[in-house]
Design brief:
Elements (H helix, E strand, L loop, with lengths): L2 H69 L6 H13 L3 E5 L2 E5 L14 H9 L1 H12 L7 H7 L3 H15 L4 H4 L2 H14 L6 E7 L2 E6 L10 E6 L9 E7 L2 H70 L1 H4 L2 H32 L8 E4 H18 L3 E6 L5 E4 L1 H17 L6 E9 L2 E8 L6 H6 L21 H11 L3 E7 L3 E9 L3
Parallel strand pairs: 8-10
Antiparallel strand pairs: 1-2, 3-4, 3-6, 5-6, 7-9, 10-11, 11-13, 12-13
Helix pairs in contact: 1-6, 1-8, 1-9, 3-6, 9-11, 11-15, 12-13, 13-15
Length: about 525
Amino acid sequence: MNKRLFVLLIILMSLSLIGIIFVQGYWINNTVENNEEQFSFNAKQILISVSNGIQYREFEEMFFPLREILDSIEEPDNKTIRQLLNISIDNTTRSFAYANDILEEDSKLFSSFINFNIDTVKLKNILNRNVDNTIEETKSSSKLGTKSKLERRIEGLTDLQRKDYEIVIGEIASFIPIHRRVRKKEIEYFLKKELEERDIKVGFEYAIYSKTLSTKVRSDDFNLDHPATYAIPLFVDDQGASEYQLLVNFTGKKQYVLSTIKGMAILSIIFTLIIVVAYSSALSQLMQQRQISQIKTDFINNMTHELKTPIATINLALDSIKNPKIEGDKEKVQRYMNMIREENKRMHAQVENVLRISQLEKNELNIKKERQELHDIIEDAVTHVSLIVENRYGYVKTHLGALKTTILANDSHMTNVVVNVLDNAIKYSEEEPKIDIYTENVKNSIVLKIRDQGIGMSKVAQKKIFEKFFREHTGDLHNVKGHGLGLTYVKRIIDDHHGQIWVETERGKGSTFIIKLPLIS
């Protein structure tokens, strides 16, 4: 694939993924904001219902004694109202019931009646309408037979009559302390009822404020600075003004809002993560395929280079044998024949490595394991490379300190493992190869260390050294022969023997290959 096209494809895929994540995040954020607005709307409606419920309850409780007084007089004046209210309150004991909460109130509830001037004009208006109201009550009594006398009277009021009563009752009630007008359990009841009707599951704290001052009517944990605080005026007069405000904290607002989109948000996040994982995997595969393509190209170049030399040598040897001057020289003929044989073995070994890796990947390589002594395998492997090391004026020293060396292994493959590691140490030593081999027992294992003083390798190469076809780049030079399969073969064989292999290295100071194999008794 063209490099520019590859980069363009990566950019487009990345932008698409970022766009999808952005859209999902925008959708979730927008949904949360909409749900918060909906919650705020519901909260305001709840507070309006609570305020109306409290105000209506007060109207019901104060309507009846006031109506009884007004029914007993024809022309009210301040003196008459004061006397009648005082007598009525002193001689009456009233009980108020709300839901399951029974609150006993004595006559002092209306003691404030005698401490202020009642608007007699409004009272006259009420009295003038009493006749019409009585007629209406009579007509509707049959329809409202199941209701109490108080309920029938209230429902029989016209809008204008009700307004007059509300104004008078509001004036009277304004002289009563707020903690006598509103009960804590009443607020809690209304709030719970409204929340249940709207299927909103949140906690709440509440308080009533008189302008900016807190009153006695409040829950224990109310916090004025809570972010989810909503307010509603209480006991609004005919001018729309109010001295009190009911403030409510909905303590579980954030959790409730998030819970409304939790299901869709989780699914959205899961699907987005799947897309991210799929994209990452696809991108990783693309990068690997590109890398493999480059590595295979390098492998073909290296393999061609390494096969070219023995083929050229064989051709030269064959041409020499055909030379009439050499045909009679048996010694030279034998020398060229040996050369052909060695070069043929070299090509065969290279092809065998490739085939061996292919068989390992397909699990077709049949490895029979028997009891082996690792020290014997090491000595045998050293013998295979000793001539090469001597020709380069180096050495291979063994420091076999392990007392237990019996392993379950395949003699041939394990020998190849040690030979390949030694061959790697020789190839990557620029000067004479200096190799030390150590063994030691660690618990139920034997550890083999092959240390060289070669050129070492980079951190990147250290991570990829056992990958197929990998070779650290040395420019266009082919001074180090190979095709990147030897250490891959080593890793696969060690894995098959239930062992471990890793490398410790430092650039310019050499490398140490460490092999750990399980012992058998």
